[in-house]
Specification:
Helix content: over 70%
Number of helices: 6
Number of strands: 0
Largest sheet: none
Radius of gyration: 16 Å
Structural class: mainly alpha
Shape: globular
Distance between the termini: 42 Å
Strand content: under 5%
Order of helices and strands: HHHHHH
Number of domains: 2
Length: 120
Amino acid sequence: MKRFIWFSLGIIALVLGMVGVVLPLLPTTPFILLAAFAFARSSTRMHGWLINHKVFGPLIEDWNTHGAIRPSAKKAAVISLIAVFTISVLLRVSPLVLGVQAVVLLASGIFIVTRPSGPR
């Protein structure tokens, strides 16, 4: 049952990561890293496919080897965080929700920006 849950989480994260490739408001890297984590616990085949993937493999390799996020991925993530908060403000979301969202998005942004950018 655990393997099924991890595999399902991996598929969901992979789909969200793939959507993030074409939708600027959805970050790709965190979902691909989550998919790799989940597949490592559920499917050797899917994990191998993902880490050897032409597009997604280097993101995972950067993270696994250096704990790094590429500058382009950082930029896309920060833009996404700002856009999501801006949309919430424009939609006049309640102040409580905005407060919680601000804290979570700020913490996420700080984490992303403070990660190394990879080998030089």
